[in-house]
Design brief:
The protein has about 240 residues and is an alpha+beta fold. It has one domain (about 5-170, about 225-235): 3-Layer(aba) Sandwich (NADH Oxidase). It has eleven helices and four strands, in the order H-H-E-H-H-E-H-H-E-H-E-H-H-H-H. It has helices at about 5-10, 25-35, 55-65, 70, 85-90, 100-125, 140-145, 175-180, 190-205, 215-225, 230-235; strands at about 45-50, 75-80, 130-135, 155-160. Helix 2 (about 25-35) packs across helix 6 (about 100-125).
């Protein structure tokens, strides 16, 4: 494996950071690396907000479910799916723009995720640690108001960045045979059962937060109730009507 593949396969979520600051010039290079990601039809349907205001970061930490590292990380970014900029640019050419299409929501969300992952990999290549914060979708309207997000823009997730103050183990992934198939979709229950054993051993032996669980049981809270049922109405209110 080359160094890039090794880096990608060594990803961990970092939730404890030193007080060392990230140079502004480096942060800009990370954002530029994000911009180099693939983007559907060159739409570049994203905006990244660097939240520096202490009070705002503390409020977002609270809104995201009490995740204190939102406030304590060296840098906190909010990645937003942004259809305001591209539709506005098209409209200025005289086009009769149709807003609120489901495909626009998908394009903006995918573009944002690809851009953010480039930022994450670039950051890790520089010795930084990162942690995605999907918890901002617990209260997306409040986060949007706090960041003055306009219509046709919504916060997809946040990202903490900083120099790691701990060294957690790499969390196992599903066997490649479970997710990589040839020609047709095929059953993968045997791989899931094996992976449950792998994850149970991982949870019981990792250096912090030991627990007796496995992958399938960890999924239960995500699927035995309606997860974030407010999101559809929120997105429609933001102008993503999903027509």
């Amino acid at each position: 494996m080359n160094d890039v593949i090794k880096l990608l396969q060594s990803h961990r979520s970092i939730r404890k950071f030193t007080e060392q600051e990230i140079p502004h010039g480096l942060l800009l290079e990370l954002i530029k690396a994000g911009q180099a990601a693939a983007t559907s039809s060159h739409v570049q349907a994203y905006t990244v907000i660097h939240v520096k205001d202490v009070a705002k970061r503390e409020k977002i930490a609270e809104l995201a479910g009490g995740q204190g590292y939102v406030a304590s990380s060296a840098v906190f970014l909010v990645f937003c799916a942004d259809m305001k900029r591209p539709t506005g640019a098209s409209e200025r050419t005289g086009a009769n723009v149709e807003r609120g299409m489901t495909e626009q929501l998908l394009v903006a969300t995918v573009d944002t995720a690809l851009m953010a992952q480039n930022v994450a990999v670039a950051a890790e290549s520089e010795g930084l640690g990162i942690c995605y914060i999907g918890g901002i979708r617990n209260n997306p309207e409040a986060v949007s108001d706090l960041l003055h997000l306009p219509e046709h823009v919504y916060p997809v997730f946040g990202m903490c960045l900083g120099y790691p103050a701990h060294d957690p183990e790499v969390k196992p992934r599903l066997p490649v045979e479970a997710i990589f198939k040839q020609d047709i979709y095929s059953d993968d229950s045997e791989y899931v059962e094996a992976f449950d054993s792998t994850m149970q051993a991982y949870y019981q032996t990792r250096s912090t937060s030991n627990k007796n669980s496995d992958w399938s049981h960890n999924l239960t809270p995500l699927f035995d109730s309606k997860l974030r049922p407010h999101m559809r109405d929120f997105l429609v209110k933001r102008g993503f009507e999903m027509k």
